[in-house]
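Supplementary Text 2. Reproducibility record for the structural model of the 161-residue chain.

All settings were left at their defaults, and a single model was retained for analysis rather than an ensemble. We include the record here because the model underlies the residue-level annotations in Supplementary Table 4.
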Amino acid sequence: MKATDSCDHHAPTSTPAVQARLREATGDFSFRQIGELAGCHPESARRWLTSGTRPPLWFIVAVCESRQLNPNWVMTGVGAVYRSEARAIELATATPRALLDRLAVILESRLAPTGGAAAGPKKAKAPKGRARPGRAPDAAEDQVRPLRLGSKGREDLRAAV
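Retained model, structure tokens:
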């Protein structure tokens, strides 16, 4: 499949253009199969892909997810057809600064405690009837606490480049 709009006589986001791209992406499938992919009746899939009826957004999203299509391409005709191709193009053309900024955001989200960054680590309560200092540490205390990158940590990471 090519990554250009297959119906140049229509505006890229018009209903016929979106329908043409959806038909191009599902060309080998029957309306029954498309209906199963999208979770709708085959007659609805046929109507949304062949007539002037605009497909509902949930149908477009379901087809994009089931076929791994790039939603930007489906809606505008711009970019790669498949999400995997779009990701590769995005990574290949990104600047080092943009890549590091994205990496900092990903690291912060993965390393932040589940209660939110502002909540901080939770302390375990001492069991009733036993003094905390004299007892052996439990398994939760032996675990390494996740590193939290505040704005200063992100700036340090960005400045390292």
